[in-house]
Specification:
With 244 residues, the chain is of the alpha/beta class. The protein has one domain: Rossmann fold, CATH 3.40.50. It is 37% helix and 24% strand. An 8-stranded mixed sheet has the order 3-2-1-4-5-8-6-7. Helix 2 runs parallel beside helix 3, helix 5 runs parallel beside helix 6 and helix 6 packs across helix 8. The model has no long low-confidence stretch (mean pLDDT 94). The chain binds S-adenosyl-L-homocysteine (SAH). The site of S-adenosyl-L-homocysteine has 21 residues, from helix 1 and helix 3. S-adenosyl-L-homocysteine (SAH) binds next to helix 1 and helix 3.
Length: 244
């Protein structure tokens, strides 16, 4: 399989340069000291937060923009039946290989979330889309597709980075330039999304907001923690699709 990015037909909501960035470092997905270290470190926190709202055992779960499968595998090991989708082939190859090593069952597919929404509406009990909305041209379209993919009564979990001066300072100046937690150019400030923007896109697609929770980083102790009252930089939002 080539490492070149070939967006499948129907995948228009894609920024090829963004995908290429992830493709080029795909070999590092499972290196906990790599540029993916922050995702490894926050993984137990976000998993616990998701499970506190929607227990995963026995549930059909979709992970949108799954990358190498860090959250995808963790949800599968909690007993969920998980499908992971991404448009970066190289990342999915890494995810497939790692799955063999861990022995968990995950169904990985290279398909746009909008295309899957046409194919499988209301198929999933829970849909997660973490740290991906800030990399796509039309995040509202992704949120709409997630809303279509979840069953009535099911949950959607989204995460991204807030857009304000503090977020610029922490997520770009701090993380990319001072602490070098992420490669320079990982994030573009104008793609960051305010919780109100996510919530209004979600409401337009009939998702009901449940909870918002921040994730904060302490550079002195080098630890992350859940911060239910602080969505000023990194944050997650939980939604529920009402019963029809
Ligand atoms: N959700 C994972 C990975 C986040 S990194 C986690 O939180 O651990 C962002 C991921 O979004 C990358 O894997 C990248 O390939 C993917 N991505 C970017 N644009 C995409 C698009 N248009 N469709 C699907 N995946 C996309």
């Amino acid at each position: 399989m080539s490492d070149t990015v070939h967006s499948p037909p129907g995948a228009t909501n894609v920024d090829a340069a963004e995908l290429e960035k992830f493709q080029s470092i795909a070999a590092n997905w499972w290196d906990p000291e790599s540029e993916f270290a922050p995702l490894h470190r926050i993984n137990p926190l976000r998993l616990a937060w998701i499970e506190g709202i929607a227990p995963l055992a026995g549930q059909r779960v979709l992970d949108v923009g799954c990358g190498g499968g860090i959250l995808t595998e963790a949800m599968a090991s909690r007993g969920a039946q998980v499908t992971g989708i991404d448009l970066a082939q190289a990342s999915l190859q890494v995810a497939e290989l790692h799955k063999l090593e861990s022995g968990v069952a995950v169904d990985y597919r290279c398909i746009a979330v909008e295309a899957l929404a046409e194919e499988a509406p209301a198929r999933f009990d829970t849909v997660t889309c973490m740290e991906m909305l800030e990399h796509v041209p039309d995040p509202a379209s992704v949120i709409g597709a997630c809303a279509t993919l979840v069953r009535p009564g099911g949950h959607v979990f989204l995460s991204t980075i807030n857009r304000n001066p503090k977020a610029f300072l922490h997520a770009i100046v701090g993380a990319e330039y001072l602490l070098r937690l992420l490669p320079r150019g990982t994030h573009h400030f104008d793609r960051f999304l305010k919780p109100s923007e996510i919530a209004s896109a979600a409401r337009r697609h009939r998702l009901e907001p449940l909870e918002t929770c921040g994730i904060t980083y302490n550079p002195l102790t080098r630890t992350y923690r859940l911060a239910p009252d602080d969505a000023s930089v990194n944050y997650m939002m939980a939604f529920r699709r009402p019963m029809d």
